[in-house]
Hints:
CATH architecture of the largest domain: 3-Layer(aba) Sandwich
Distance between the termini: 42 Å
CATH topology of the largest domain: Aspartate Aminotransferase, domain 2
Number of helices: 17
CATH superfamily of the largest domain: Type I PLP-dependent aspartate aminotransferase-like (Major domain)
Radius of gyration: 21 Å
Number of domains: 2
Amino acid sequence: MYPMKKIRKEFPVLAQNTYLNTASSGLLYDSLMDYRQEHDFDFLIGGSMFRESSSNFLNSVRQSIGDFFTCDAKNIVLTQNFSLGLNTVLQGLDNTKKVLILDEDYPSVNFAVTNKGFDVCCAKIDAKLEENIKAAIQKNRPDIFVFSVVQFTNGILIDLNFIKQLKSEYPNLLIIADGTQFCGTQIFDFKSSGIDILGCSGYKWLLGGYGNGFILFNDNILEDTTPDSYIQNAKETDYDPSYTNLKARFECGHLDTFSFGSLQYSLQFLSKTGQDIIQQNIRELAEYTHSKLTKLHLLEASVLKRKKHSSIFNIKGDQKLFNYLREKDIITSMRGNGIRISLHFYNTKEEIDILLDALHRYR
């Protein structure tokens, strides 16, 4: 378990900036940089011999992901990013099915659904998100529900107990979740979550850098969502199973051990730091920030009315305020109608105070 002061020294960006932008990109850190350099040095001196053990290595990456999120390694697919993985999942589903989405969800989620010809229905994202979803299901009887666990613009966090209950009430509803703005922020047991398929890119809260992601499938779901034609054609060929198995539809071509090794290294780094400590730090920071921004009347009503929230906030502000904050080395993002700030475990209350002081001076 690493002490927090030592951890912050791992991230050079934090020494020069008030970095409140993990929802846009997680940070590279010193020990991961060392790992990546060592990886490429081994490739440099080994060439093809370096790749001879790649299959076993990628299996170990799946196992690390499974250990971190409580999912059997055999049910884990590696993908370069969430969007590619989701599109592959949806390509394998019957597009005569009815799909429920959330009205202002991440474009990589909603466009992936709408451009494939599914019969689409929507639920509104507001303070009554879960009630809206339940009403939409009762009215439209969808076959599939696709959503982000955390909304990328304002940080609204869906109630995961609600999802578990939803699966209990509608066991035939295929539940597909985007965990990119969620995974790494709190301890998560996928196997008992009620979610059938969860995808995630590794470059945000998991600190894995770009070019890596994964999809978790609950038992039998990978086979159930693979087209019958694919399964039949695979049985009728003499190709090596690595080209025709159920995962090959997602993992076609060579996977990059540099990218997936980075993800594995960061999962181990987060585990050594302590998932419980990370969860607690993020929760305390989020509660502190929520309280302060509420007093300044900077949060939207839908966020204020919810009992629980993530560590992503969208505050009232325009391009001028965004530019002002950047001049003060406070790193945020313009999203929706405001400025998005996002907090990871390496942030501190002092950094939130720096933001608040800047907002006060701007006003």
